[in-house]
Amino acid sequence: MGVRTSIAARGKLLSPGRRRSGAAARFWGAGRAVRANPTLFAGVIIVCLTIAVAVLAPILAPFDPIDQDLTHALAGPSGSHWLGTDSLGRDVFSRIVWASRIDLAVAFASVVAPFVVGTAVGLVVGYVGGRLDAIVARMADVVVAFPVYVLIIALVFALGPGVASIFIAIAIVSWVPYMRIVRGETRILRSRAFVEAARVGEFSHIRILLRHIAPNVISQPIVYASSDVIRDILAIATLGYLGLGVPPPAPEWGAMIADGQEYFSTDWMLAVGPGVAVVVTGFGLALVGDGLARAWRIDR
Amino acid sequence: MVRYIGRRLIALLPILFGITLVVFMLVHITPGDPARTYLGIHATDESLKALRHAWGLDQPIPLQYLIYLSGLVRGDLGQSLYYGTSVRSLIAGSLVPTLFLLLLSSLLAAFVSVILALIAATKPETLVDHTIRAIPTVGLAMPTFWVGTILILIFGVHFGILPVGGYGTDIKSHLESLILPSVAIAVAIVPVLVRSLRAALLEALNMDYVAFARAKGLRPSSVLIRYALRNASIPAVNILGVTIGFLVGQTLVIENVFALPGLGRLMIQAIFKRDFPVVQGIALVFAILTMIVFLLTDVACDLLDTRAA
Amino acid sequence: MTTHKAPLLEIDALTIDVMTAHGPRRAVDGVSLVLHGGDTLGIVGESGSGKSLTLRAIMGLLPKGVIQTSGRIVLRGVDVATMTRRQRRAVCGKDIAMVFQDPMSSLNPVMRVGPQIVDGLTARRHLSYRDRRTRAIELMSRMGIPDPDRRFHAFPHQLSGGIRQRVMIASAMACEAALMLCDEPTTALDVTIQDQILRLLAELCEQSGTSLLYVTHDLAVASQVCASINVMYGGQLMESGPVADVFRSPLHPYTLGLLGAMPRVEHGKRRLVPIGGAAPALGELPAGCPFAPRCILAEEACERGRIDWRDMTDGRGVRCVRPLTDAIAPVEDQR
Fold first, then answer.
1. Model ipTM?
2. Is the Cα torsion angle C22, C23, C26, C27 positive or negative in sign?
């Protein structure tokens, strides 16, 4: 018994499994978990559908999302423009479909850097402890002292408009939870991992970290990441709404809602439509997060 | 008591230092010359030089930071580039609506969360419980600004019973204009609170002292309120404290949805005017505000939890 | 003892199941007992014998996932199953009060102890808070709590274990119920304090005419406060009878074993003879007598099926194929 079996106790997905090993076990484990877990199943379906919409945008969207047609501005829903057109005569439905590309791509990409940085820092800091741990903890405290969005908005402002600024701003702010989660788990596992490593005869710290600790702590940041994507989608849409997001004329859900708000009394679909897209996407991801947490028995 | 709070405040000093450093660095991570960015490409060299001097940008960076810090200590947040007045007076003028909104929305969120959590915890594993537990999943996915616009659409535009924005001129109209923003923020906060509150209540309800209170023949309502809720209030206040950063962030966004003349709106307006000192000042105030609320809830928890004293 | 009236409490073939991941497991199996006004009755058994669940079932305070599957609990001639939830609740604190095992977890840690005792004064809800407070302080001093005025405002964690337990008993006494249920209230305390509290409890019950149903794993404790005892094992009643008789001549080998496992000073020599083996885990009960696997006198008949209860003379009873008689040799010779 040891650290490896402890993940078996935590959940089915990551358990190494005696019959199949490595990636195969993970794949089969995941398949089984999806079937046994309706929440996860529903979530995966919704997320796959939204991703499919994003990928197939050129086929699904009947119009070019940035083609203006001022003669048909603010036309209500019709046979050709299903959700009507916006103030510049652009087809709303096409813009919502194309926006899913931008919002999803930016959101998923924004998760990568904080996930990698936070997990790595958390592992090292939790393992090494001491002064390094204290310094990183202070840095995290400073970042968290800023209310949500305040630091992101300030950073995007300082770095100038553009997708790169959004990436950097989100990364600077959201590595902290990953670090804290992984650091806590690592500290718990450290002594046990030593015992296990000593039994196998490994004495390299890097090997202990990578072989005995990392595989056991990784499920927690993954579950967190599934809800972090939602936060990032909301953050990107919020930046867009405030006029600080992906620069126009690229279609983006938040910016579309802001545009539509001006024509509320006549064309409410302009603001409601893109919002529904955000909610559906976020709901699917939230279901995936809940399902994963349940499959891995992680309390949140 | 005073010494205890003093100790807690001293523990916050390094974080405070870090916050000022981050806020200070905002100007310096800006690509290119901030003076050039501000004045535009047609500015003359003299005016650029004058502006750099006025901002202290011609000094070495550590010295600039010290000058900035010494200003902060004196309560000087700098001059607004756009309005020409002091940042401090601008912030002071916008603080009240923000605080009012924070207070109202957190009260509303706490009230709704407690009710929902009570219902869920007293009827565990029923349809009601499952419905309430599903709230976080749906609520997490809803952008606050969108909830705000929907509320405007329904109550402002369609029914026309509440103002669609602005702040009004007297207390009554202030309150009226804060209703929809508070609801929008509560919709964002309640999902976070309900999940933890329900867990805390369920835990309290399973304690021996609740069984003992029942055995004494107390009415279920008194058992619930005097024994379960009272004990669950400690983790609840704690959660509220942890959530405060989220809450303040939501007010920033919502102020812009409803055109409330608070700090959040001032910040976004300053951003579009590239009014660096105002953005810096508001970021600083927001961070300090959050820190203070967090400290207060933490102290409140320690006071509520008599065992820690 | 007033036997002509309806008994205060009558339990008839009570059966309780615990829901586990592997299905329901029987925790209490056909327990019956009768308690009249003024009786002091002990239930003795090891942990897991079902004694505490029996008490909780009487109060209607079974934990989640624990279900009473059959049997009746009759209070003053009324079956509690026929009561509405409101009536059932009214019984708590009015007819029956309960003292829990662990005073630390049974007192609300964030509430001062005084108001918690005041909460027990259910019968005196009509009084003003000031009067109820006076009454609570009086109860505290009767429970031998020194300086009750000051202790009234203390939090549970500020009191010693002994005082906490006195507070809890005071809080239960405050109900002025006809029947007091005690779930090992002295286990956590050291022997001298345990002794003081037991004396007080017995004294107070006698003065006020309160009946006592006392659950413990310790025969000696039961003998100190109870007039008659019931021995439980594996969810079933093994033996019952007046304390003195059971002590002098136990009828069930398990009781004999318990007596042997009780530290006694006899002939100037301390002896402690433990029972071999371990108590059965929940759901691992054998088909026959639950004690059979550990019983030195077990025979084939013991394992064949459920053993019937036998009423004996002098108000005694036993559930054993071959009850012990006086002819049986003393403890040490059996090993």
1. 0.85
2. positive
